[in-house]
Design goal:
The complex is a heterodimer of chains A (773) and B (156).
Chain A: H1 15-19, H2 26-29, E1 35-41, E2 47-53, H3 55-59, E3 63-67, E4 98-99, E5 105-111, H4 114-123, E6 125-130, E7 167-175, H5 178-184, E8 187-195, E9 198-199, E10 207-212, E11 218-222, H6 227-238, E12 245-248, H7 265-275, E13 279-282, H8 285-291, E14 294-295, E15 298-306, E16 312-324, H9 330-339, E17 351-359, E18 365-366, H10 373-391, H11 395-402, H12 411-415, H13 432-443, H14 445-448, E19 454-455, E20 458-468, E21 479-485, E22 491-495, H15 504-516, E23 523-526, H16 544-571, E24 578-581, E25 584-587, E26 593-595, H17 596-605, E27 613-618, E28 627-636, E29 643-653, H18 660-679, H19 696-699, E30 710-714, H20 737-749, H21 760-769
Parallel strand pairs in A: 1-13, 11-12, 14-18, 16-17, 22-23, 29-30
Antiparallel strand pairs in A: 1-5, 2-4, 2-6, 3-5, 7-17, 8-15, 9-14, 10-11, 10-13, 15-16, 19-20, 20-28, 21-22, 21-27, 24-25, 25-26, 28-29
Helix pairs in contact in A: 6-7, 9-10, 10-20, 15-16, 16-17, 18-20
Chain B: E1 2-7, E2 10-15, H1 22-28, E3 47-50, E4 53-56, H2 62-65, E5 69-71, H3 85-93, H4 102-115, H5 121-127, H6 139-154
Parallel strand pairs in B: 1-5
Antiparallel strand pairs in B: 1-2, 3-4, 3-5
The chains are: A alpha+beta (773), B alpha+beta (156).
């Protein structure tokens, strides 16, 4: 031990304490005696608030304050926890005079207990005037459609933002000449696909606790993926200096993008400032479903011109995204539906991507693992399956022939980024071909495709999907790390990177331990605290291993260099004579050694005293894509439309897996989330726009008993720009399940389901419509 | 109202409202290892043993537990901070990602293995069907239960 850390499946450093139930989460450590914050929500999908009378509530003993549009800052902002300036429009206020969905926030009570707060909320008299509601995204931009946002809502980056027509974002790129490309084609395939809204359903509901420290500064403990963005946004919304706010991220009970949203911090901060008391706000499960953020539903039209030799001469992709009541991530999720999908088949010379995000009176979209790529790949992979069948070729071979390879690029990288132009890049690591082969072997593709084997009346079929994602946002994402040496030869590593359960603390320790040649146990990591750790954009866009890992590698490498200089001075030899071995330097000529402990004591207590510490930041000009092939075997009962996933296989190229077991865990969790979403999870609304299944038991999320057997394979490649060859892996595996399962259903029963979710009712109807069996 | 119960082997006097759940009473008394995930008995994060019966503590009144014995994940070995083979198996296999569901998963695992020392995959999946996890896809959780079962059998 001490020689190698990277590539070992170490236990996550916090796993055992978490299993024992350590008080690690925000609600576990919230200050005793804090005021409890509770919200009242709109019962109407769209209404103007005429008046709010809180006098009866304020008269209730135990009520400290009531907050509403009449007594709170009116700053327009976005809850999207993105970098500055945010690509999401400023269309949101703490409390607005207008409510825009059933579940929008109307007012908030701070009280001595949740029970008192809830009673107080009921005592608040609210008069509203209902407005016509808009639920159909297709008609959102039509003349006469109800308008959701006033002129003062605005974008803060150069963007096509048009609230007058309910347009939260528009994207348009064109490469080559698609009309001419369609002319060249032997046949054209046109199809519309739709993907549905979804809940992140992290087990820990959104929660924040806020208090004043001894000097009157705000300390916000928050279950957030973005502590630094939360600090910046809270500062701006409330008009208080950024340095007067400290945000601490303890352990987080899952995020998946939902906690990339600054949903609670400004409210708790305001309540603490106004009452002088500590406050805590812990959402209920129903609130988490309705009033946080969701996966944006999307309609994707794909039109491709294909020659009989299989080449695609033109591809047109048009996306309509329902961003709900507010435009959180409205531009960037939309962009990603093209940007993360279209480079995959990089030899299409004529391409266009057009997209529009529209406001409706639905619950609000936001960042969700996969981030638009999930929606785009549902369409793309079914389309490719259709094309391969039309050509009469095996889709496995077709994908292997046309996917992007090492040393290649795509014009889409440069034309389309996240909300703006992208960055040109060449793919330097890609093992997708091997991923496809191994996934196909695992599922038994050769024996099962086009066989329609019937077992006990259930027809079996297999389908596949391939995907790429990215590793951070190039030239935008940044991670920082600092490190210091202690006298026992151990190190403190402080990172802004935000471990939300992924194990990033563990793999960042592994990277540092590898560079320093010390056992991982000698490195104590701290993440994240805006007072104590350097900046990091946070945990999103599959950025942590690649971007934050790059910062840690650089920081640890610098530390080794600094320690070498001290070691050389101590041994009285040139630095170049020292050999870096496990926890020591050895003079290669004399075999004299100095241990890291010796260096630590020397620097702190003896000669040339100095705290050895290093600091590094990391950004990237490129975003190396991880690649993935996923395969599903399904069984369909043609009499009822019932469906089971019999086996699901994922083969992923994430470069070097810093910790293979944790990387597998990312793939497995994302894959099952994708499977569960494809088959069962959905939001059901009443005619008035109320979510009627806002609880786990009715939402459809899979349990262990529902989950199919899954096979996960890590296929090695080496990414030269990544730390020890690593790319990121957190999101990609959520993209393939829906199209792989849809393609498998087609293989089994010959019906093409283009609308999610893939429910037995839909399968049954499609089979009947096709006139079989 | 007040009442006495035993939590993890130690007596506890609790002061509670008639409608207060065992979950709230335990968390208020500092047993924050019992997690609040849904308060509807649907996620399993708040599972505890009440007199050897596995219960969602959000679905039990505190009053019901008076006079009873409660065991949480922190009390499985009877020694504070000392892990049980189930805890170690969860950590070793990567079954803990965010860790929020884990205290409940551990309790469901303990209840299963108490009655069935060598469960099959299907038996494990059925026994854990009242516990939701969004992080792991349950693969390594099932693996952890097998590993824990093996170690507990070896330990007799």
């Amino acid at each position: 031990m001490g020689e190698r850390s990277v590539g070992l499946s170490l236990a996550k450093i916090d796993a055992l304490p978490l299993a024992l139930g350590s008080a690690a989460f925000t609600a576990d450590i919230a200050p005793r005696g804090a005021l409890v914050l509770r919200f009242r929500y709109s019962e109407q999908a769209h209404a103007e608030i005429r008046s709010i009378d809180a006098s009866a509530a304020l008269a209730l003993p135990g009520v400290a304050a009531v907050f509403h549009h009449g007594n709170c800052p009116e700053t327009l902002y976005t809850t999207a926890g993105q970098g500055h300036p945010e690509p999401s429009p400023y269309d949101y206020r703490l409390f607005d005079r207008r409510v825009r969905y059933v579940g929008d926030r109307v007012c908030m009570v701070a009280a001595e207990s949740a029970e008192i707060a809830d009673r107080a909320l009921e005592l608040i008299e609210i008069e509203t005037e209902p407005l016509p509601a808009l639920f159909d995204p297709e008609s959102a931009t039509e003349p006469g459609a109800p308008r959701l946002h006033p002129d003062e809502a605005h974008a803060v980056i150069p963007a096509d933002y048009d609230p007058e027509h309910n347009v939260a974002a528009r994207v348009e790129i064109s490469i080559g000449d698609t009309a001419a490309g369609m002319e060249e084609a032997d046949f054209v395939v046109t199809q519309r696909y739709t993907t549905h809204q979804a809940a992140h359903a992290a087990l820990e509901p959104h929660v924040v606790a806020c208090s004043l420290d001894a000097r009157g500064r705000l300390t916000i403990v928050s279950a957030t993926q973005v502590p630094f963005h939360a600090r910046r946004i809270t500062s701006r919304v409330l008009g208080i200096p950024l340095h007067r706010i400290r945000v601490i991220k303890p352990r987080i009970g899952g995020g998946f993008g939902a906690k990339q949203e600054v949903l609670l911090e400004p409210y708790a901060a305001l309540a603490t400032l106004r009452t002088g008391r500590s406050t805590v706000c812990e959402l209920s499960r129903a609130e988490t479903f309705v009033s946080t953020r969701t996966r944006h539903p999307m309609r994707v039209d794909l039109r491709t011109g294909v020659k009989n030799d299989g080449s695609i001469t033109a591809l047109e992709m048009d996306a309509l995204m329902d961003t709900g009541a507010y435009g959180s991530h409205a531009l960037t999720v939309l962009s990603n539906a093209g940007a993360k999908v279209l480079p995959l088949f990089n030899r299409i010379a004529n391409l266009s991507f057009t997209g529009c995000s529209v406001y409706t009176n639905h619950p609000v979209g936001g960042a969700y693992r996969g981030y638009g790529a999930t929606q785009g790949y549902f369409a793309f992979n079914q389309h490719i399956d259709t094309i391969a069948r039309r050509l009469g070729v095996d889709v496995v071979e077709y994908c292997k022939q046309w996917h992007i390879r090492e040393g290649e690029t795509s014009p889409v990288f440069e034309a389309l980024g996240e909300g703006k132009e992208g960055v040109s890049q060449t793919v330097e690591s890609c093992a997708l071909g091997e991923c496809i082969d191994r996934g196909a072997a695992a599922i038994g593709w050769g024996e099962k495709r086009d066989r329609r084997t019937v077992v006990d009346g259930w027809v079996h079929g297999v389908g596949m999907a391939i995907c790429m994602q990215g590793s951070g946002i190039p030239r935008i994402d940044m991670g920082g790390a600092t490190m210091k040496l202690n006298e026992d030869g151990s190190f403190n590593l402080a990172v802004g990177a935000t471990d939300l359960g992924t194990g990033s603390d563990t793999i960042l320790v592994q990277i540092a331990a590898e560079a320093l040649k010390v056992p991982p146990g000698k490195i104590e990591i701290l993440s994240s605290d805006t007072d104590l750790t350097p900046f990091d954009v946070g945990a999103y866009a599959s950025s942590t291993t690649y971007i934050s890992g790059g910062a840690v590698l650089s920081c640890a490498t610098q530390m080794a260099t600094r320690m070498r200089a001290v070691g050389a001075a101590a041994l009285g030899c040139p630095e170049k004579e020292l050999v870096h071995e496990a926890e020591r330097f050895r003079n290669g000529r004399t075999d004299e050694v100095i241990s890291f402990e010796g260096i630590g004591y020397r620097t702190l207590y003896a000669t040339a005293q100095e705290q050895l510490q290093t600091s590094a930041s990391h950004t990237s000009d490129v975003s190396p894509p991880p690649f993935l092939a996923q395969f599903a075997e399904v069984a369909v009962d043609p009499e009822t439309g019932d469906i089971r996933v019999v086996h699901f296989a994922s083969a992923v190229d994430c470069g070097t897996a810093i910790n293979p077991r944790l990387a597998e865990g990312q793939v497995e969790g994302a894959a099952l989330n994708g499977i569960s979403w494809a088959l069962a999870e959905q939001f059901l609304f009443s005619a008035g726009g109320r979510l009627t299944n806002a609880r786990y038991g009715r939402y459809g999320m899979f349990t262990a008993a529902d989950a199919p057997p899954m096979t996960t394979m890590l296929v090695a490649s080496h990414e030269p720009t990544g730390p020890y060859g690593a790319k990121s892996v957190a999101e990609i595996a959520i993209n393939g399940p829906a199209p792989a399962i849809a393609n498998a259903i087609y293989d089994a029963v010959g019906v093409r389901l283009v609308d999610l979710p893939l429910t037995p009712e839909r399968i049954y109807r499609a089979i009947r419509a096709a006139g079989q069996p | 109202m007040t009442g006495n119960l035993t939590v993890n082997g130690a007596p506890l006097l609790i002061d509670f409202d008639p409608e207060e759940t065992l979950l709230d009473a335990l968390r208020s008394a500092g047993f924050t290892e019992v997690k609040r995930g849904c308060e509807q008995g649907e996620c399993g994060a708040c599972l505890v043993l009440l007199d050897d019966l596995l219960v969602n503590s959000c679905q039990v009144f505190a009053a019901t537990a008076v006079g009873g014995r409660v065991t949480t994940t922190a009390g499985l070995t009877g020694e504070p901070g000392v892990p049980h083979p189930i805890h170690e198996a969860y950590a070793a296999t990567g079954a803990v990602q965010c860790g929020f569901c884990t205290p409940g998963m551990v309790m469901a695992t303990f209840a299963l293995l108490s009655g069935n020392p060598d469960p099959s995959d299907d038996e494990i999946r059925e026994a854990l069907a009242g516990n939701l996890c969004r992080c792991t896809g349950y693969v390594k959780i099932v693996e952890a239960v097998h590993l824990a079962a093996g170690r507990m059998r070896d330990d007799g």
